[in-house]
Amino acid sequence: MLRDKIQDSGYMASSKTPQFEQRGVAKVLRMLVSLTVGKVDAGVTVLLTPDKRLIEFPSILLPPNISSGSIVDINVSQNSSKETAEEQKFRALQDRIFNCFGASEPSAPVLRCRNATQTSVVLEWDPIELATADLISLSLYRNGNKAGPIPRPLQMHSTKISGLAVDTEYTFHLVLRTSAGTRLSDKVTVRTHKMTDLSGITITTGILPGAIKENLTQAVERIGAKIVDGVRIDTTHFVTTEGRGTAWEKAVENNIPVVRPEWVDACEKNGRILGVTKFYLDAMRPGPPSEEQVAPPVPPKEEAAREPPAGQGSKTEESDKGADDAAAKEDKASEEQSSDDDAAEPEQKAKSPLPDEQKMRLEDMEEQKVALRPRGAEPSEDGGADGEQKDGEDEDEEGETNGKPAATPDGASFQEVEL
Fold first, then answer.
1. At CA 377, angle to CA 374 and CA 379, rounded to 5?
2. Contact 415, 305 (CB under 8 A)
3. Would the pTM of this model clear 0.70, i.e. be above it?
4. Where is this region: Disordered (predicted)?
5. Which residue of 133, 135, 253, 286 sits 20 to 30 Å from the alpha carbon of 247, by its own alpha carbon?
6. Phi, psi for 414 (deg, rounded to 5)
């Protein structure tokens, strides 16, 4: 009877086969199901289908006063209009997400050269455009090799590379890594300047008198350099005559050479870039030429005669002396010879076996004014030139032992003193 009632109303009573009914343009799916209430709990109610299937149904959606054994009819239909509205709402949300996060992508960095000198290059680039991506890193590459990462890439838009070779070509490019992919900048080719190319000099002026500043400006224009306001990353030299002021402090903090105006004049005069060591502001300025104090010449070692210690006076040759002086010197020499012989008696006995010949030679030295008797001039008592050569060797050893000076051709004397 329930099936007939459902068919009379135009609905299908089967829980298995749905029936479509077309009303206007939209197709509506409706299904009427009769279920028997089984167990009723506070949260979930168990319903039984005609073919003995169990369905758990929320108790809150059932009519009140439902108990076990009650029969309920559930009408299920498709709400196409609401589906269309929800789909349009979802599409709109997807469009907003795409426009916010997917329409724009990170752009590649734009790199360019700001300034180049003989040994350094200043590079700059536009602010990084990340869109909605996250930044991973920004690195600088030189000649295809990684030169290093850029610190604080979102705040820094320039960098300076120093220590380059003079008149050499280099290639630089940036690599941007983000969560949306990797972007590479175009390669920039830079050639460092020659030593005679002064166009790369960038000067920031400090405290200067009016006349000096005007002359400096003219000199900078003549050499092809440039003057900029304030200390910047491309400032190569800071020119001033006084070490004070905010600009001077910033130049010192950035390790920029602080030089005097004379450095620019020297570069212009020489036609090439010069070192700044002699032109530092705190360096000693060259004063007027002063008379050089000529140091007394140091006498050669051969001409400087040492003074003998007390008790061992050195004998010098005297040319014009009378017979009395010669006799006095001979006596004095004899006394010194005897005292020396007593002090070194054991050694003298071994080295000087002929004291008579030594005395004879000493007298000959005083009278004839010669240091040594010519070899082979007179035969010795021991016979011939052999005895003479032996005497010469004894004399050298004796002079060395007694501490007496050895004669030199120019009349100077040397000795070695044993204490």
1. 125
2. no
3. no
4. 284-419
5. 286
6. -130, 155
